[in-house]
Amino acid sequence: MKNGKLKKLILTALVLLLTTGCAAVYGDGLLSLPKLPGEYLQLQNRLDEVLSSGAVYAVAETGADRQAVQMVDIDGDSDDEVIAFFRNASGVYSVYVFKYDGSDYVQIGYAEGYGTSLHSVSYPMLADGSMAIALSWGFDEATTFGMTVFGFNENNMYSMLDVRYSSTLIGDINNDLTDELSFVVRDSMTGRYKANIYALKGDMYSLVYEAELCIELKSVSNMRIGTAERGFTALFIDSSASGGGYVTDVVRFTGTTAVNDTLDSASGSGMATWRQISVSSADIDGDGYVEVPVSRHTEASAIGGDLRYRLSWCSFRDGQMMGKKAETFHDTASGWYFVWPDKWRDTVMPQSINTVYSSAVSFYVPTLANNQSGNGYEEPEHATLLTIYCFSGDNRAEYVQLYSNLKILRATAKEIYCYSIPDGEASPLRLTEEEVLRSFYVIEKNWLVEGR
Fold first, then answer.
1. Which helix (H) or strand (E) element contains residue 98?
2. Which of helix, strand or coil describes residue 34?
3. Rounded CA gap, 407 and 403, in Å?
4. Which residue in 101, 204, 264, 370 has the fewest CB atoms around it within 10 Å?
5. How many beta carbons lie within 10 A of that of residue 209, not counting itself?
6. CB 131 within 8 A of CB 74
7. What is the sign of the dihedral through the CA atoms of 23, 26, 27 and 32?
């Protein structure tokens, strides 16, 4: 039986399950297989043997691989194995791995887990092209998780790593085609967080890098692997800060050590990366290097307007800001950002305008006296240069029609973004339509962190 055909049939069966509801489950709906015809009955028989013991199918709480029955090429032979997750009457989680040998499905692996929930399932890539199974466990303490990583030998599954953590990311850090396991862990004695990175050594995972994280870290919101300035691979850890706002740790890998480039070595602070709004590190200018967003105005609430949403995107080295790549205005509530034009400098101010039909931001020159363009042109008082609108809801298309002279920037599944450039005298600060279109972006959500 061709593996692709089997996989297609099982996926179809999973869809049918949503409408038939024929299996007991622990978790949500995309769970198990209904009865399968012909040769697939052999697989169902293996699963029924487990269910007959009183177990039910179990699904992970989060992540891309949440189904109770999954098809994955664990051993790298181009044929998928069947991985099935269960929970017994005592609350113990278990994973079974089955392989088709040409005539029947045989069990090639079994393991039990711990914890009050199956938090997530991942498949780290190993050096020989095979995969491990990484199971994350939830506990009653909401900020702590556990991970057990299982490998395979000729007899069964065995534990390659067992660790407690707050957040984790699986990915290839040193470009050896093998995934490393990165964890943010909290020291129970000091309360400080640190990054621990494990790499495959033989048939086990071993700790290879360790780096202190900033004292402001409260909880991790995003983790990603990227290229830092000067070409080094780094782990970017974006977090909410204990005193409010957000900070970033950039852990750079040199080949032998890990260095936190955003950490002040004397104080342990990471406040050089502080911003008031939740925006994660990104390659903001498309040059292949990941930059850190930093608040352009740390006292924006005192200054007035919406300057707290204006960010500088910077690189760091040894706790110091090394350079600025770009500036943006981020409207995180409406899901968009705008690259701040160089010619606007500090002359232009943003102002939020919310109505029954839309949320909008107007960019304007505040007063005649605040002319800082340095080009001899005097803007009229409170001259609006650009307004960006966000329309949402079921009637968003009709709401757009209520406004005159709006042009569409972008339409997504839930929002319509528009803009207007008021008619008026020519201004050196005025943007062309091409500049507006080139500077506007929809914020893309990512799911590169587990834990929180």
1. strand 93-100
2. coil
3. 10
4. 101
5. 21
6. yes
7. negative
